Each structure stands twice: as structure tokens, then as C-alpha cells.
Amino acid sequence: MSKTTYESPLASRYASREMLYLFSPDKKFMTWHKLWVALARGEMELGLPITKEQVAELEAHMNEVDYEAAERWEKKLRHDVMAHIHAYGEQCPKAMPIIHLGATSCYVGDNTDIILMREGLYLLRDKLVKVLSYLGGFADKYKALPTLGFTHFQPAQLVTVGKRATLWMNDLIMDLEEIEHRIEHLALLGSKGTTGTQASFLELFDGDHEKVNALEEKIAREMGFERLVPVSGQTYSRKMDAMVLGTLSGIAQSASKFATDLRLLCHLKEVEEPFEKEQIGSSAMPYKRNPMRCERICSLARYVMADSMNPAITASAQWFERTLDDSANKRISIPEAFLAVDAILNIYANVASGMVVHEKVIARHVAEELPFMATENIMMDAVKRGGDRQMLHEQIRRLSLEAGYQVKELGLPNDLIDRIAAEPMFGLTKEEIETHLNPVAYIGRCPEQVEEFLDREVKPILERYSVALEQQDSALTV
Length: 478
Hints:
The protein is mainly alpha-helical. Helix content is about 65%, strand content about 5%. It is built from 21 helices and four strands. Helix 5 crosses helix 6 and helix 8 (about 160-185) packs antiparallel against helix 11. The longest helix has about 35 residues, at about 105-140. The radius of gyration is 31 Å and the shape is elongated.
């Protein structure tokens, strides 16, 4: 490959081979060929003067693209679809007169775009499920490990490491539902003609409306679709592109939220992404272990979220039955969104499969904050022994401020328990107070919530996609 021209990092660094192939010239133009075969076969079966020999000739060369001939014709005709019609026709001279019969360029262009987007969604769906399977194992393993919860990134009530993972998973399940919905509702454009009226096909079939409809249905079935766009101009509504990229943006949002959480946990030294033995975290600071994979997720996700605006704006700016200001944008925005989300999910799976949990660090952080969290239970215990709730509340408030000063201003350990034990008002010994410092007493139903979530929400998904999980390569390259 030439080192003197720009190349997309999405292709050279990030996306997988299968996603790169999906948006390759080979996949695109062979799909054009398949659509021309489906069109010719359908027209033949419905009585047009097309022979089995012509269809067979098209089928014989369906997976062969003569790029040299297509390039030669495009230089002459300045039209990519017509160039490939002529190149295909040179391969299939008997079928040349009937290739693309009655169709417009969008017959191959738009239908191919829909087919590729659907196949891309299938790939992303299966990779998302793989991430869910890794996170599910992580959540189950750490479902009862207490850790500090954070609101506003300030210590809050305890949760568990596994419960936090279910929040990441719940976002992904919403994304999976969106992918499934989008796959189910993607419809093929079919054979609508130059302005969506099917006039050319009505002319071919001598005014037989039933045959015009039957042709579309035959093409849809051959291309694996149950649904057809009911009405269109020359193109399918560009809202379809906007909806698909909205789904991809949703995945990016979820992945970025996970990666941001993990970057913060890495700062706390509680949970870290995988780090290979020979990996270098910083060129200047050898000791560093930067969360570079999660940073990459956030970086790519930001690109996808911004990119998803492209088809939204394009959809809003289309004129009547067709303009061409969508074409150049579509060629870039849609493939690159798929490539970027593919990369995001590959990295996400890699990180989720090897997160490192530092339990002693987590326990230390919990111990530092637990005295503050235990004050309500301590106060209730003192009330049961005859104390005044309002006076105890005020005393705890004052003692908490004093203990906070020790921690924040003097850098000393949290001595709140000692201060409470020294106050006769509470009537509790230090040993009695320390019975309220078991972290497990403050995690509520976290373990049960994890178990219920995995059983009710995640397990059915993993069972539904068990074949896809088995087929995926467990060695993920990042």
C-alpha cells in the first residue's frame, strides 16, 4: 500500500476484516450483479421475452466484477451504474440487451445500501451480544462485592461491583432491542422506477398492475427481504439512513458511558482494563497504565455520535422525488459509522473479557467512607437506648464535620467512630458501634438484583443467540 496517500484509520487500524469486506467494492458490485439477476429472473418468470439462457449467463458471472472494463466505461460515460452494466454485458453478451431492464440507477444503488446496512446490523448485533456475555460473567462474579456508589462522583451509598456492571449491560440491551427492531423493519426499495411510479414496469407488462407488484415481491424474496418500501420517489426515504445511524449512535453512547466509568475507576485504582506484559502506557512516564482502550472507545464513539447527524440533515434536505446531494455524503457517513461501531464493540469485548478488579483498594475506599454512611444506623441504635433523635442527629452532624476536617484538611484517617464512642449522649461502646460497619449491610438487594437481571434479561438473550456466540472468534484483536 502506498505511504504517500491518505488512508482511513478506520480501515487500517480499527475495523474488523468482516466489516471492511461488507463495505468493499467487491461486496457492493457483486450485490449489484445479484440484483440484476433477480430482476431478470423475475421479469422472465412473469412473461417478458427473457430466456433461461440469458439468466443463466448472468448467474455464471454474478460473482465476477471486471473492474478494468468498468473503469474504462466510466471514463467514457461518466456514470458508474451504466459503466458496470456495460462491463457486466461484456461478460454476458447474450444477456446484455436485458440487463437493468426497466430499472433506474437506484434499483441497484439503493437496494444495495439497504442490504449492506442490514448485514452490518447483523454483524454488530452478534458482537454486542458477545460483550453482554462477557459483562454477564463479570457481574455474576462480583455481584456481592461492596464498592462505593457515586452520585456527582461523590461517595454515596454502597453498591456492588457486579451491580454496576448491570447498568452497563442494561444500556446494551436497549441497544440490542433497537438493532432487532431496525433489522425487522428494514424494507427493500424494490423496483420503483425513475420517480417511484413504476411507470416503466407498467409499460413493460402492458398495464398489468399485478405483474408489476409480483416482480417486486420476487426480487424481495430472492434478496432475503419480507418487506418492501410501500411508496417512494426515486430513492427510499433517507430517514431510513438516519434511523439506522441513530441506532449506531445509541451503541456508541452506551459504550462511551462504560468506557468513561472505567476510566474513572482506573483513576481510583479500583478496576482497570487489561494491560499486557510488554504494553507501554506512556512514552515519558514508564510507570503509567493509561486506560488507552477505553479512551479509544470514547474517541470513536464521539465520532459516531457526530456522524449520525449526517443522514439526519440529508433526510431533511431532500427535494421532492430525488436530489443527488445525498450521494457523496452517504458514501462516507454510513460505512464509516458501521466501521467505527464495529471497532468500538471489538474493543469493548476485549476490555470486558479481561477487566482487573483490585478488591483491597475497593475495600480501603469503602472503609474510609463507611463511618459516614453508618451514622443513620448508629443513630437509630442510640434512639432505641433512650436517646433523643433530634439531638443525636445534630451531634452526628457536628462530629461528621469535625471528622471531615481531619480527613480533608489534615490528611488524617477518618476518626468519626472514635468521636461518636467518646460522646456519652450515644451510650454506645466503640465495639457496639463497629457492629454497624459491615459493608454487606449497606448493599441492599444488589446481589439479588444482579441474579434476577442475569436470569430474566440476559440469559434469554444469550440463549437466543447461542449459535452466533459460538461462531465468534474468542481471540479479539484490538
